[in-house]
Amino acid sequence: MKTEQRAARRPKASPPKKDRVQPREWFKILRLQKNVSRARMGIDLKLSENTIKNIEYGESDPSFMMAFVYALYFGVTVEELFPDVAIEGKKYFEKLQLEFAK
Length: 102
Description:
Blueprint: H1 25-33, H2 38-45, H3 49-56, H4 64-74, H5 78-81, H6 83-101
């Protein structure tokens, strides 16, 4: 029986999270302007308070779907709410374009 060889895995799009942690002040500011606690936001969005804290402190990134949910909750765009993720995505795309141009 012949086994198929797998393609080499691509490197991750961004450096390990521990190397790029930065607080998301805008996320926290919008939450406070909306006058909701982390606990209330967690209840509203059916998430744990800890999840909200980790997003605010930049310790975790939102999933694709949840990035839109958070943006809708605050009435802003995903790019406005998570500029760090948008910038990383753009940099990675530019890197891919250079590789494809070779």
